[in-house]
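Record copied across here:
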Amino acid sequence: MYATIRRYEAVDETRTSELVKKVDESLIPRLSKLSGFGGYHLIESGDGVVTSIGFFDTSEQADESTRVASSWVRDEKLEAALPNAPKVTRGEVVAHKVRAVVPA
């Protein structure tokens, strides 16, 4: 499994709600259609910082997600809300654990 972390700084905090709504409505559906998609999380840290984490089967698929996210920013005309290119970290997930879902 590979992860891609994109950290956006100097985000226009007056547009955070709009950004979150658009991520939910249009970015996540685009990413989830990519081959090898394993999950996506968006973290709003405050102070103009938003970070996303995406999981994919291969490094190539993770790289493609960054290209899709970049195109999405342009398509949704969010350049002013996200004025700086994200700091991207990507690599193989070498340790992880998820909580088991217990049937109700």
Q: What stands out?
A: The mean pLDDT is 90. The first helix runs from residue 16 to 32. The longest strand covers residues 37-46. The domain at 2-92 is CATH 3.30.70.100 (Alpha-Beta Plaits).
